[in-house]
Amino acid sequence: MGCASIPLGQSPPEDDNTQCSGRGDCLNGTCLCEIRYSGDECSGFNLPYHAGISSVFYFVAFISLVQLMICIIAEYQRLKQPSFLRACRLTTQKLLYFFVFIASVLRGAYFTTPETLQPAWVSYLMSAYYPLVMTCASLVVCLWAEIFHLRDIRWERSQFLSKSFLGFLAFNLLPYSLFLAEIAYSHLFSGRSTNFFNGCYAALLLIVVIFFLIYGVEVFFKVRGGFVYDFGTVPNSENVNASQLHQSRFGLLSQAIMLIVIIGFLTSETLGDFWKKKVPVYSRNWHDIVFRLAEVGVALWFPCCLWNSMAPEQLWILNPRKLLTRQIDPVAGCSGAGGLDWEKGFTIQHWAKTIIIVTLMCITGAGAWVIIQLNEDSFVRVLVAGFAIIIGYILFKMLGENTVTAIERAKVSSINIVTSASDLHSASTSGGSGVHEKLNTICQDVECK
């Protein structure tokens, strides 16, 4: 059996789900099914699609698990007194392998069976992928932020975050809290759309991408940061490894582009109820395929960039010193002039303000989405959407200013005024009060800023 053709110039009723089981379009009496389904009336499921997508994600999970095991074994062999627990100590490299493994397994499990045969709890696996990806991306951002701000740390050695750990922990509470809220919402309001949460994931992922690009450009494009040890002098072409530089830049941009694509698709999924049934089925199929490819690419990027499990010092993502052909030695006698005091810039107050701003952004988006869903007046919908965009822009600007202020505060706190004993003695005899007045003025200016 096929489907009943619709006369030219007419369209089927919006509530008519008899055409192709509501999973495709009728074209000349034949059902053109969505990519997940097959059959004359789109009543079956597309086995090659589900098997292909799930197999790719399982393959990424397998690669990540193998890399994690190799990393642990290599660290075990390097220990002077071998211990399995010490070999399993928490490092950035191991945590990235682990979260990519979990994210890929959950994605593969979701696509193993078609939606019609899945139990209710399997639908949660679809959303669980995004908090895990955000954890991986934010971990890389925090690592690069420390590489940029901090000095005198051996980045070529496997380790975990230091100064930015609390910030990393505070941010990751947001996506996982959002995921739990989605589960609670689906239980309380069974049958209602949860597409709104996709928009929230997109907003949080956008914040990660912005900082991913900020610190990625500073470290891998401008080649600046604590690992350079040159106090503001940009390395020239003679002491920069061109091959590693191009690899890092390509890797940075490729991941940023794929994350931006996912943000766009998540945003479109948020508004899926308004547009999906109004576009041809082949457009929806291309949308689904590109979306899945972007998700695979984002997960696969981490194992590719962390390919050398046994020697993390050879990976540009973990050790930016690979960008330099020779180590630039720090200038003697100025140990504090080039570093940043991270804690004085990124304080508890800063992170609290950041969480408040991000929460308000989510609440604004949620409120606008609820009003748009409950109101059928197109003028009211456009007005609410406009106000939500304006408020979101203001909050996003506040978030940027808050971060810039914290960075400037960290820079100012790192200033050391070095004065010799003879200079202090002469200043005290000739006009020591003037020196103290200048210092007080500087302190007041910094505090006011």
UniProtKB/TrEMBL annotation:
Keywords: Membrane, Transmembrane, Transmembrane helix. The chain crosses the membrane at residues 56-74, 95-113, 128-148, 160-181, 201-221, 250-269, 354-372, 378-396. This is EGF-like domain-containing protein. It comes from Culex quinquefasciatus. The lineage of its organism: Eukaryota, Metazoa, Ecdysozoa, Arthropoda, Hexapoda.
